[in-house]
């Protein structure tokens, strides 16, 4: 089994605001295998976005406070990194796509200027011109370096000239390399007329177009981990389908690990290999998406799946879960789900919340659930 | 979609046409204020020991015995042809103002430079550390500048801080310029004449009055920058800039500040116009040979022509400063259309 690319351990995040302390994440632990797509699904306010933002350390601190936990990314604990090293992680190692394409591009700069920044950062790091934290260690092969040809030696000037060309080569690359790179990534996200798009400002583009550009920007840095925080939720339904199809196709082409956040069970089923279900700041179930959907091991997952509308509305009102999501500043004692759980027993209130561990009677060892009675979930209707 | 450069030309043209209307109004108001408030300035102009005959002669020479409207139209017709009249002592107004106005511009531009180079980064630092000690220090600093009355701040700088730093206090230049003055701006003139010691001297003389002018108005730039940075920093595009892997400096000053500057520019435009009138006090304190000191002199000595001339230049300054701010506004924000 390959080393996990991302390993989140006991991550707990609070928001300290005037009204009190809100526990947005409580002891969230999961692993992501390289090259796989992990989905995180849950209701609004369950902590999905907080989790997504905590990984590249994008949470505004304050009001957010990371209480404890570790985020192991390729052997480095991101939470232990000093602030000034964070830009080295972002972009080429971890990149992210946000929910609102309307706001995620800078209104003051042309599309080209925003894309070229990403390309430049990647090229500078790839060629070792700017410092990096993660290097693809390849042994240097000297046979690759061509020996100077006689013609070149002859062409070299006898007297030293101002090293302007050399400086330019050291500092950056020519404009053309950048431009062709930017165009290549715009074509990758299926933009028909990239030459025109380059010179436009974000406000001259549609939402779907802007989200494509965001995807191009993220991919142009070739990140090892791409976090997509509800990338299609703010788009209307036809554009949503287009962008999802595009992302699905790109997953085949780019082969990067993706953490896909969504509130839409259908989207997750379509996109993800693994799925994590979140409830009130807790990761209550995690496992291969087929298995979690076909035989959920947590009563919340079961209830969530049951409330998905079927194709025809013929069997009465949609089943819904009694009660409502608890206030994150005053979580119930024990398992946070017990007030709404049909399986709840006294132990669920008395004991601290059950840890996320291998579900009993689950098929695959990867399937984990945080419930004392995970074997009884099947019996629920 | 998009904007044409011709939009900008039309926009500037329209605004300059408006300037004519503004100037007409300003001249009219100032003329009637001065002439109605002091209907007979000849008592002062002729001096304390003037005889009745001298005063009558003065009244006759200055058309003060004619009805105000007649006076107004004859003044206006001369003004348009470039004859701005003379001071009571016979010094022509327009050439005096033309030699003194650039000196004031020099002062105002230096103060604006201080406000931009110091005020805006301070605002960025305060917003980026909002609620922490850096923020409190910056806010105390600019509020104390803001709360200080102009004359008090000027006097403190001129008699306490200036000498303590060894800066020259008055407008008396150590080496009185003996070179031609094409611009009537001490630093530029010295540089054009390649007289570098005079240029250094001129810069040293500029520092105190310019910082007095800047310190008082710094708060506006800092506060505006801080407030709009606080609005911009939580935006998604700032997160986008961060997730690209850009350094904190680029995220703050390239991506966030660019969008915050839009409101700061507007405020700076208004302030720049206001700075002109603040120079009246500052130039008196620092004996700066600019238009502000001249305005003070003209008003206190019932120099009507001088007063109206100064007011015209102040009005031009205010309108042009706002125009520049509006043009910059459009350059900073591609979504703005010049209308």
TrEMBL record, chain A:
Residue intervals passing through the bilayer: none
Membrane-protein topology: Peripheral membrane protein
Occurrences of domain ABC transporter (ranges): 6-305
Keywords for the protein's UniProt record, in alphabetical order: ATP-binding, Cell inner membrane, Cell membrane, Membrane, Nucleotide-binding, Translocase, Transport
Alphabetical list of InterPro entries matching this protein: AAA+_ATPase, ABC_Ni/Peptide_Import, ABC_transporter-like_ATP-bd, ABC_transporter-like_CS, Oligopep_ABC_C, P-loop_NTPase
Species name: Eiseniibacteriota bacterium
Keyword Cell inner membrane belongs to the record: yes
One matching Pfam family: ABC_tran
Family: Belongs to the ABC transporter superfamily.
CDD domains membership: ABC_NikE_OppD_transporters (cd03257)
Biological process terms in GO annotation: peptide transport
Compartment(s) where it occurs, according to its Swiss-Prot or TrEMBL record: Cell membrane
Origin: domain of life: Bacteria
Protein name: ABC transporter ATP-binding protein
Chief subcellular location: membrane
KW Electron transport (keyword) present: no
An annotated Gene Ontology molecular function: ATP hydrolysis activity
PANTHER family on file: ATPASE AAA-TYPE CORE DOMAIN-CONTAINING PROTEIN, OLIGOPEPTIDE TRANSPORT ATP-BINDING PROTEIN APPD
Cellular component annotations (GO), alphabetically ordered: plasma membrane
Automatic annotation (TrEMBL), chain B:
PROSITE patterns hit by this protein: ABC_TM1
InterPro entries given in the database record: BPD_transp_1_N (IPR045621), MetI-like (IPR000515), MetI-like_sf (IPR035906)
Name by which UniProt lists this protein: ABC transporter permease
Compartments where located: Cell membrane
One GO-annotated biological process of the protein: transmembrane transport
Gene3D superfamilies: MetI-like (1.10.3720.10)
Boundaries of every ABC transmembrane type-1 domain copy: 101-329
Family: Belongs to the binding-protein-dependent transport system permease family.
Signal peptide residue numbers: none
Membrane-topology annotation of the record: Multi-pass membrane protein
Primary localization class, coarse: membrane
Source lineage: Bacteria, Candidatus Eiseniibacteriota
Membrane spanning stretches: 16-38, 107-128, 140-161, 202-220, 267-288, 308-332
Keyword Flavoprotein listed: no
Keyword field: Cell membrane, Membrane, Transmembrane, Transmembrane helix, Transport
Entry GO terms, CC: plasma membrane
Pfam families tied to this protein: BPD_transp_1 (PF00528), BPD_transp_1_N (PF19300)
